[in-house]
Amino acid sequence: MKRSAIVVAALATTLFSAAPVAALAQTQAASQTLGNDLPPTDKAFVQAASSAGSTEIDAAKLATKQSQDADVKSFAHHMMIDHTKLAIQLKMAAPSGVTVPKDNSDPSVLDSLKALHGKQFDEAYIQKLGVQGHQEAVQAFQKEAQEGQNAKLKEAAQKALPTIEKHLQMAQQLAAKKGIQ
């Protein structure tokens, strides 16, 4: 009896500690970015770009499992490929000694999607990540392209901006096709 109580306690601890682990990972990634020796605009860009990209990749993986819609799955596949490439480009553009966080997805966004399936998932995914997420990403990349002080990061933002804008356009077209506002 005593042993089963210990097992139950250990299991409960594991289950209840899973959510804080994701939040902790994001907090650690943010602190890594803040510790970088970069001007504030560039620090904010590295954090925003790495978090947005990581969230896009993880949400796209969810979409391949939880959506039944071929268009949504195709969009998700496209996002996985492009955002993986963009993450590599961001790391390559980062100056020596600058840490680009990885695996720093936004847990609140992913958690809001995990419980959804089918049409409900599709609507939330398209709206939150496709449209809203890419609107925010376009703003972050535009700001870095215009105001960034690190030449390599500024150039990387300028090069990536057309891809991010294309993603926004694709998401808006998908939303219109599916009747999502």
UniProtKB/TrEMBL annotation:
Family annotation (Pfam families): DUF4142
Signal peptide: 1-25
UniProt entry tagged with the keyword Signal: yes
InterPro entries the UniProt entry points to: DUF4142 (IPR025419), Ferritin-like (IPR012347)
Residues of the DUF4142 domain: 41-174
Annotated keywords: Signal
Domain of life the protein comes from: Bacteria
Annotated protein name in UniProt: DUF4142 domain-containing protein
Native organism: Candidatus Burkholderia verschuerenii
